[in-house]
Amino acid sequence: MFQNKLLFSFAFFMVTTLFFASGAIAATHTVKKGEEFDEIADLYDTSVYTLLELNEVEDIEEVTEGFVLKLPDHIQNKKVPAEKEKKKETIEDYEVVKTLTVEASAFTAYCKGCSGKTASGIDLKKNPDIKLIAVDPKVIPLGTKVWVEGYGVAVAGDTGGSIKGNRIDVFVKTKKVALNWGRKNVEIKVLK
């Protein structure tokens, strides 16, 4: 009889321990390639600050692919989204890869010192309606499709002596259009 009570007590202890231990297991998220820290926080309805503090991380740069993040307690009681599909931004059937703010000016095929041919070999005089921009290829590789605010979808098809860093030149038909464009900050979206 004593052995039965002892066996029952031990079984009860094991079952309750397993039950409560499973409830105490913290929810986690393994960081995937290309995931942004703020996107992960949004995914779980929490803040970047909360995730940093909970994981004892001082710098977001420490959180790289494969890092296992502990999630806040309130996540344990919610269904953790396994693979919440993030809506991808698209423009004209192209996926937006990156958004930048750049300084933009305009040029024509007939500007002083221009040959009318681009660094990628396009003859602008024979293609006056082409949507093309000059870029710093270290920032945007030649051949890349890009949406430019106030201009539309264009190809990065040229370079220029003064086009360095976050600067672009948009190709336009006439000097008058180029002068009207001026020099301004615009948003661009790199596409794929």
Automatic annotation (TrEMBL):
Gene Ontology MF term list: hydrolase activity, hydrolyzing O-glycosyl compounds
Domain of life: Bacteria
GO CC entries: outer membrane
Keyword terms, alphabetized: Signal
Family matches, as InterPro entries: 3D_dom, LysM, LysM_dom_sf, Resuscitation_pf_RpfB, RlpA-like_sf
Signal peptide: 1-26
Alphabetized PROSITE patterns for the sequence: LYSM (PS51782)
Keyword S-adenosyl-L-methionine in annotation: no
Domain LysM: 27-71
Gene Ontology BP term (one): peptidoglycan turnover
SUPFAM superfamilies named among the record's database cross-references: Barwin-like endoglucanases, LysM domain
Protein name as catalogued: LysM domain-containing protein
Naturally occurring in which organism (per UniProt): Solibacillus silvestris (strain StLB046) (Bacillus silvestris)
